[in-house]
Structures are given as C-alpha cells and as structure tokens.
UniProtKB/TrEMBL annotation:
The lineage of its organism: Bacteria, Pseudomonadati, Pseudomonadota, Alphaproteobacteria, Hyphomicrobiales. This is Serine/threonine protein phosphatase 1. GO terms for cellular component: cytoplasm. SUPFAM superfamilies: Metallo-dependent phosphatases (SSF56300). One of its GO terms (biological process) is RNA decapping. GO terms for molecular function: bis(5'-nucleosyl)-tetraphosphatase (symmetrical) activity; phosphatase activity. It comes from Chelatococcus asaccharovorans. Residues 15-199 form the Calcineurin-like phosphoesterase domain.
Length: 240
C-alpha cells in the first residue's frame, strides 16, 4: 500500500524518462526545459537514472543536487534503482543487476571491470535511491516508472507493480480518468501514445534520442508538446 505524492501545481509539468547514465541528454533536456519555462515549473523524472549508459554516477549526483530556485523536481524510482540498491545492500541477487547494465554503473563509480564494488558507491547515493517514491499524482495524471494496475485503487497499488510491470501490447488503459505517464518499455521510435497513457522510453542510452513530454496542469489527457533531444553524433533521425 502506498500514499501518492502530491505536490502543488505550477502550471506546467515536464517529464523525463529513462536516462540510463546519459548525463549529456539530461543536461540538454534541462536546458530545453529552462528555455520554455524560465521562471520555473515542475519536472518529473520517471526513474532508471542508472545502468547501461556511461555516466550513472554523474546523473545521480546531478539529480541529488536538486533544482534551481523556482523549480520543483520529482524523482521517482525505476526498476534499475531497485536492482542496484538490492544488489549493493545484499537484499537481492547481484548478478541480475550486473547483467542489466550494473557493470557500466560500477565503472562510472571507479570500479574496474571485474573488480569488486566494495564501498565504491557512496552510502548517500544508495539511500537516495532507496527512498525514491514509486508514484506521483497531480490533478489529471499519474506518473510512474513502469505502469499502473487499472483494476486497483490508487492507494492500493503495489510499489513493485509501479516500477516493474509491463503493459500487454496495445493496452490503452490509464487509470480511470487519470492519464498514466511512464517509461520502462523501450521503443526506439517512441514515444508510444495510447488513449489513457503515454510511454516515453525511447531507449535513449543507445539511440542518443530522448523525448521530454510537456503537460498543461489545467488540461486532462496527454502532452501538449514533445521536446526531442538528440545528442550530437547520434545516428538517429528525428521522430515524426
């Protein structure tokens, strides 16, 4: 059972999903967001800050530093943070994490390939990841890493579901009147839009292409704008 995180609205909400160690895309996204809302707004990060990409430590450090004055940042937990915390605190098997990008994360913390993690990851980084909320809700939308069980009330959602579930292909459901905003399931040609939800995972760590969704806090439904961020040198074409 969880209590949704409710933060006062600031007119517009930007959503950034599945960074996976791409500090370059994080910084470029924040710059694009600041251009559109120079006086501040809300940014929701839907998790998976670590693994696969080259700069997991730097991404975590940047997010932990927090936003500039006038901004609200909401960092949610992804399944890769869940795996990392479990592996490095001994509460879950470590090999699964290592096989899913954990080796790259350890390298960003200065551990040579084949080396032992030891105390390479600062305790405050693990504590920050462990304490991340699995869900944020505002007037019209629910923000999570992976998805929401549409058959259960919001207050009865299992955190494991919110950070690990996969929607079956073609599922259009959000959650009642709430539009669900998530990532987790990668599509190079994303985002994928559905009647009641949007999936923002564009496999940015590999493609070099990340899409920031912009929502009007006073309007229900999907985004009013999509901001496409493409890293220099990426061999991808802009989306439609």
């Amino acid at each position: 059972m969880i209590a949704p995180t409710d933060v006062s609205m600031m007119g517009i909400t930007f959503v950034i999903a599945d960074l996976h160690g791409r500090l370059d895309l994080l910084e470029a996204s924040l710059a694009a967001v600041a251009e559109r809302a120079p006086e501040g707004a809300t940014v929701v990060f839907t998790g998976d800050y670590v693994d696969r990409g080259p700069q997991s430590r730097q991404v975590v450090t940047r997010l932990m530093a927090g936003p500039p004055p006038g901004w609200t940042w909401i960092c949610l937990k992804g399944n890769h943070e869940d795996m990392m915390v479990g592996a490095l605190t001994g509460t879950a098997a470590g090999q699964r994490w290592l096989d899913n990008g954990g080796l790259e994360t350890l390298q960003s913390y200065g551990v040579e390939r084949g080396g032992k993690p030891g105390g390479s990851v600062p305790a405050e980084h693990l504590a920050w990841m462990a304490e991340l909320a699995p869900m944020h809700r505002d007037r019209y939308r629910i923000y999570v890493h992976a998805g929401v069980d549409s058959t259960l009330p919001i207050e009865a959602q299992d955190p494991e579901t919110l950070i690990w579930m996969r929607y079956a292909p073609g599922v259009e459901d959000g959650h009642g009147d709430f539009h669900v905003v998530h990532g987790h399931t990668p599509h190079k040609d994303g985002p994928r839009h559905y009647r009641g939800r949007i999936n923002l995972d564009t496999m940015a760590w590999r493609t070099g292409r990340l899409v920031v969704a912009v929502f009007d806090d006073d309007k229900p439904g999907g985004p009013v704008e999509l901001i496409e961020i493409i890293a220099p040198g990426s061999k991808v074409r802009p989306g439609p």
